[in-house]
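User: Fold this one for me? It's Putative amino acid permease.
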Amino acid sequence: LGAIAMFFTAYSYSTLSQHISSSGSAYAYAGVCINPAVGFLTGWILLLDYLLFPTLVAVLGGVAVHAILPQIPVWVWPLIYVAIGTGVNYLGIQQTAKFDKLLVFIQLGILAIFVLLIVRLLMLDSSQITLSFRPFFDSQWFTPGLIATAISVAALNFLGFDAISTLSEESEGGGRAVSKATLLALVLATVLFIIVVAFAAFATGNVDRFAEGNATNVDRFAEGNVGGIWLKVAFSIIVAFVCAVGNIITAQTAVSRVLFSMGRDRMLPAFLAHVHTTRKTPDYAILFTGGVTLLLSYLFSGKIESISTLVNFGALFAFFVVNLCVFILFNFRMKAQRRIFAHVISPIMGMIVIGYVCLNMNIHALILGISWAAIGIAILCYRKAHNQNIAIDLEGKKLLD
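Assistant: Here's what I get for Putative amino acid permease.
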């Protein structure tokens, strides 16, 4: 249900990426479909998501591994994660893609081992495995109110597919390749989520044994239940490391392209638009992102909830604007190409879903997010007062590695 809820937004990203080929993603979409000022504000708020997400991952990964290896200070892990992520990104998009593939194969391998061990345990001693449809449907908890709340939470687990749109200027297939990849990413994530949750539930049995708020312990318990303590420790370390590095690489790839695009348009300092002469990557933006991520990792150490809520605010705002862009573009400026589902029903449903998810957002996140937006508005007012140009450059040099 969470995937279905996010499908509408993914479809909007897929639609716009075919018509607007820019590494600026939601920033460029809003600037072209609405106006450059809204584009800047969207990009500014989007930075909350793209700059803080690698910070969140670095902090989470550090805490996870430190719990298993307390001898190593927790601050060491974010340093390692960010150094690897920044280094890989600096080498170029082709090297980044190869490294990402390696990390994906490692994670798929871990998932395959986990599933095979559960199947093996079922064959050896079926009493330890609870095969039921309960992970998918439990009449005791299946009420409209709880399901609606659960959807708003589950939908946030799909954040990230939007980052693909930042590679529009570098992908060999251009906007069409990005369009297909966006929807494919959502489908694959949904399938993998279902597999992990279902098999973890099968191996766990009665989840009522876990205290409220400790649902994340289910996977760790399941690992220990099917493979013993060695699997629990090994998987925890490997998954924490691989997920942290992989997500930091992806997030830094995305945010460096948005910073590059905004720097190219002089919406942010121009040095962010610098392109490496041989690697053809926004090298200054990548290094800037790495430095900011490292700094924020220490400033926000132990404040995981605060980071995650701000990340959600930035992403949800951008999602809402992207859906709005599709509706405006095809209902006012490109009426001849309008399709009812793709350009009317889908974006409206996307805005409704995002609006509902925002209703369940932490009030402190809303206050901080609105405060960040207010800073962006103040910058806009300053630029206009000093007659500084506000425009989106879609003719800028493409990054081809």
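One thing worth pointing out: The two ends are 38 Å apart (CA to CA).
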